[in-house]
Fold:
Amino acid sequence: MPTAALFSQCPAGQMEITIEVLTDDWGNETYWQLVPFGNACNQAPIFIGGNTTALGCASGGTQTSPAGGYASNSTITEGPWCLDEGVQYNIISIDSYGDGQATFRVRANGAVIGEYDEDGGFQIFTFLVQEPLALNMGVTSLTTPLYNRIGLETRFSGVLRNFGSATITDFTLNAALDGSVVFTQDFSGMSIGSGNNFEFLTATAWMPANVGGAVLTVWASDLNGSADEDPTNDAATANLWVNAAIPDLVPQYLVGTPVVTIVADDDEDLLTPRDLAWHPDPARNEIWAINKDVPGTGGSTVRFFNPGEPNQTHLWQRDPNAGHFMSLPTGIAMGDNGNFATSPGIFDANQNGGDPFTGPTLWSADPAIYAFPGQGPLGSHLDMLHVNPRSQGLAHDRWNRYWVVDGTNGDVVMNDFREDHGPGNTWHGDAVIRRYGGVTIARDPNDHIVSHCELDKRTGWLYVVDHGNQRILRLDTRSGSVNGAASFGPWESYVEYTQMSGHTWETIITAGLVQPAGIALSGDHMLVSDHANGDIVIFDISEGGSFAELGRIQTGVAGIMGIEVGPDGRIWFVNATTSSLGVIDIDENVGVAEAPRTVLSAYPNPATDRIHIAQSNLLGANTPVTLLDAAGRRVLQTTVGAAAAGIDVSALAPGTYALSIGTATVRLAIAR
Structure:
């Protein structure tokens, strides 16, 4: 039976409209009006809702949170109204605090025809009163990693939305790379109602094989056995980048005497650094270090450009609200989507003696967003979750999912931010958090030396430093099941906050470590830093291995915390005692050569008609040279030999491009 026949009680020419208001943790900050299209606030409103006694048209962004109005974390249905078909109407949304608030879901005769998220103090949304199509489905977002690596599987993921009025029970999901279909998967027995979303993660993985860019396109087809009635909104695209595999140079480090070089110290704004992370975009060539600092100001970051090279530069940054979102940070981890996360080591991020309202924070690595003033009422942070006080370190999983060592509860917690709330806003309700107990991890009683963790994305094993018990543990993140609600907290609402059981833990290292702190993985090797003596201890983690200690790299200076294996396989570290950043190279006398590193530059930059390539180690005349535009599309391909006299770019539009040779990439601009 048609949807209209079930719901409509309106005269001819009109349609029954309802609006669902989905509030966040602060429902009292919501005020809104339904008005004819083009009308101003309070100009002939059809309906006024929310906190009507305390708020009004001028309340947006006043950073007040008066009592009254809607309940928090609730869905309130307003209406119905009989509105004219084919006519537009406005929702005027006002958030008194200005940090993002309610979602407005508009239904026509029961089917969703529009959904709008308030993300500021004052916004106007427009919807058209019309009967939705029956079969209309599209991909609204992709969460497939943007940065991938040769030899590491990637599964396509994202969110499908049913824009039609019919419930979707069956469909086919399709994925293409650079226009060639590489994957299809049939879904059946579903029940995706009008306006509802379906989060997908494909069963089959893609194994990247070549360095460079690729455009991913994903769409749904064969909806309930029929064609989609609106093909214009079917697909979503993402620009992916594939990095070269990181060489495992550990066997070479075990021969001879490695060379330790300090590349930065407090002269480059390092102040008790506790961790570091490489940005996954090779063209940026950046390593980030995170400073402990003090609770009042919060921590800070130092970005090193071209680290360890003669042209190394740096940039110190602190977010305006770091006192809450980055207080006494213990760790930093880069994501695969342009974001990164940090773990505050403080018990109460509010620093007012209240609840331990503390946990990992999500940030954008975009230089136009991170630590940039004016992003939102609460700085530039993208999201924060609050059930991991005294976090000891964290490891990235995929997209916005991170693993955190909880220093207060002594366990490991999976924190999936899922969709961030945007810079400086506050809604965290879509998060999924799962606690993994069973083995107690003891933090440093002085809350200084960290207990880091690292995820082996090949196997799903999470390797965890248990500093206080002088040992290393590991958790099989692909094991276990949800076993009811978690008991610690929470102090805000989440989609899921649960306790896991039946997961596999094991203790793998119990001797040889004095003050273990940082941890990194390289192939079948695990590296652990010992804060007490500055050693980096190397263990065998190969399948079927005995986790034997294979050797040590002696830096000679106590205080090392975070360690990281760089994209070229070299070992990097930060020393919290000496406030320094260092790199460890293989002994020059070792007969096994280090994997070659390509140093790439192009000039002039910006260019007008022709660019020239300068390299310190040419890879051969037949080595491919690729030029990608800002959307990741291949616009030019040649070879090193053919480019010897320069590359003609006169036919390309002005903009930003990525030039790649082998594993090296450089950004350049074309301007006229």
